[in-house]
Amino acid sequence: MIKPSKKDNSPGGALMARPASLVDNVYDVLLGQLMTLQIQPGERLRVDNLSRELGVSQTPVREALSRLEVNGLVIKTHLVGYRAAPQLTKSQFEELFDFRLLLEPTAAARAAAAIDPDKIRRAEMIVQQMAGAHPGNHYRDFAVHDSEFHDYLASLSGNTLIADSLERLHTHIHIFRFYSHARVTQEAIDEHRQIFDKLKQGDPEGTAAAMRSHIEKSRQRVMSVFD
After folding, report:
1. Which of 26, 60, 165, 227 is the most buried (most CB within 10 A)?
2. Taking the CB of residue 160, how many other CB atoms lie within 10 A of it?
């Protein structure tokens, strides 16, 4: 049986629904520790140590680490083993936001052009949940809904290449991991509401503009940490 995390039980659970299988449970625990920097960037991850800590065999630990490797959170080196991925540098974050600006406004415009009442209700539910993370609360309470909102709009674009490309960037994983000790701001909540309002109106150009503005302001918030 997996032992409860002694460090923090809540952050990992915010990023994914708690699954039933042993491998998924191991993944969930390790994800929570990686995302909140309880496991530090670059830290060595020894399978035997993790197996003892979690009270499971090495097999589910290895499978969970392989999944985390796919998600960009763990790096495996031949004859060395696993370690936590390094944090993105300032220049890498700049490149990440540049790429988002190329894809997400287009995806948002396509989503607005294809919007219908059912999709509006789903998007509104996500925005309402996001707003439930009141300004001043820990950023991790906001991050899961932020990620869900962006992923949902990308999926509504109807362009699987755009949606898959954004998913592979693991944008929110990197931002959350870097920014996990920040606080939610009213500005961040309002920006998503502005995107939703244009989406609800079926306004492709307005939705794209609101998305572009949000990404640029998000870039400024993240980059300010480097100043």
Report:
1. 26
2. 10
Q: What is the pLDDT of the chain when averaged over all its residues? A: 86
Alpha helices in the chain (DSSP H): 22-35, 47-54, 58-70, 90-113, 117-131, 140-156, 160-169, 171-179, 186-200, 204-223
Of 40-44, 110-114, 206-210, 222-226, the least confident? 222-226
Q: Is 19 exposed, middle or buried (0-12, 13-18, 19+ CB in 10 A)?
A: exposed
User: What's the longest Cα–Cα distance across the chain?
Assistant: 56
Answer whether residue 96 shows pLDDT above 60.
yes
Interatomic CA distance for residues 75 and 26, integer angstroms: 17
Neighbours of 167 (CB within 10 A): 13
Cβ within 8 Å of residue 40, ≥6 positions away: 84
pTM of the model: 0.77
Distance CA 116, CA 105 (A): 19
Residue 195 corresponds to which amino acid?
A: I
Closest to 208 (Cα-Cα) out of 162, 140, 171, 176: 162
Give phi and psi for 77, each to the nearest 5: -115, 130
Distance, CA of 143 to CA of 133 (rounded, Å)? 9
- Terminal CA-to-CA distance of the chain, rounded, Å? 45
